[in-house]
Design a protein that fits this description.
Length: 349
């Protein structure tokens, strides 16, 4: 069932100015820390902007498109907000904080990346985002704390054993197997288009021309690449008729059978295609390649680690939720949280 969120979506500046004028509506308390209606609205604005959606409720407060967008994004936003609060609280228990030196370094990088030269320009940029320097520092510190908690409490305790790596390798052999590839050169002799159908005379002339070009290569010893640049009607003539390398899996079955019978350097008989007659020269063909376990170990470690990290993080965050005092002040938002948790569980599975 779709949830109905009675939350007008306002631009961030309007939300911030409203805070000074009205009493905040608290949606949830997490160990005493509050999350408000305005906090949620800011996250909704940011999420919709990230999706490239900019919807103005002023002209239509019952915007159906907006309502659906909110129904889609709000459950995960609530879960993320609650989990972030829990992680930041844990980080503060561990004594994590952003030092003045770290904050200055991050600000300097932001200014450098955005080519901001003066303090006035930086303040103006913050104002345009409806932020103060204190807001920026608070956001950066929360982000840093989340990363440190995840690193020290979750990721540092995850390892990939040799047995796990071997099991993943054997179960996902296709990920470490490369299909054969072929590199070809072509010469195309095109046939004129005729709305009445195939012009038999023109078609025979094109075939005869293609056969003559092949004789010039196979019997006369002329260079296929040079001839392609001179006589081919295909755009590939600019590169001496070069095509590929191509995976054999991307080649039509009939053409693949033809190529498999050829040797490097060999030129095919004229092949009838829609545009005319095509000559193919096989340049190179590679065999199927399989990475060894040792060669694939780094990739395997990354993939197994990623899967284990997701599972371990879910265990960790579930433990924090179970230990927390979470007081819901809005039943619809509580439903959204429960829905978001279910969605996360399905993705994790």
């Amino acid at each position: 069932m779709k949830l109905k969120f009675l939350l007008p979506l306002l631009i961030v500046s309007a939300v911030a100015s409203a805070r000074a004028e009205i009493i905040e509506q608290i949606l949830v308390k997490v160990n005493g820390e509050i999350f408000t209606k305005s906090d949620l609205e800011q996250r909704q604005v940011a999420a919709l902007r990230q999706k490239g959606q900019a919807i103005d409720l002023k002209s239509d407060p019952n915007n159906v498109q907006l309502r659906k967008a909110l129904d889609d994004i709000t459950p995960q936003l609530i879960v993320d907000a609650v989990d972030e609060m829990l992680i930041v609280q844990r980080g503060k228990e561990l004594g994590y904080k952003l030092s003045d030196e770290q904050f200055k370094s991050v600000v300097d990088n932001i200014r450098k990346e955005n080519k901001i030269e003066s303090d006035e320009q930086f303040q103006a940029a913050l104002k345009a985002e409806n932020m103060t320097m204190a807001d920026l520092r608070r956001n950066l510190e929360r982000s840093m704390i989340v990363q440190r908690v995840q690193q020290n409490e979750v990721m540092s305790k995850i390892g990939v054993t040799d047995d796990e790596a071997k099991a993943y390798y054997e179960a996902h052999m296709n990920e470490f197997t490369s299909a054969p590839t072929v590199t070809l050169r072509e010469i195309l002799v095109s046939t004129p288009t005729d709305p009445k159908g195939i012009n038999v005379g023109a078609d025979e002339a094109a075939l005869e021309k293609a056969q003559e070009i092949r004789r010039r290569v196979t019997t006369g010893g002329e260079n296929f690449d040079k001839l392609a640049g001179e006589v081919s009607d295909s755009p590939s003539k600019a590169n001496g008729g070069l095509i590929g390398p191509l995976s054999v899996n991307d080649i039509a079955p009939d053409l693949r059978k033809l190529i498999e019978k050829m040797k490097p350097g060999e030129v095919s008989e004229p092949i009838r295609i829609t545009r005319g007659y095509q000559l193919l020269k096989l340049e190179t063909i590679t065999a199927t390649q399989v990475m060894s376990l040792e060669q694939a170990r780094e990739q395997i470690s990354e993939r197994v680690f990623t899967d284990k990290r997701k599972a371990e993080f879910q265990k960790y965050i579930q433990k924090l939720r179970a230990q927390a005092i979470i007081e819901w002040k809005n039943p619809e938002i509580h439903k959204a949280f429960d829905e978001g948790v279910k969605q996360t569980a399905v993705v994790g599975d």
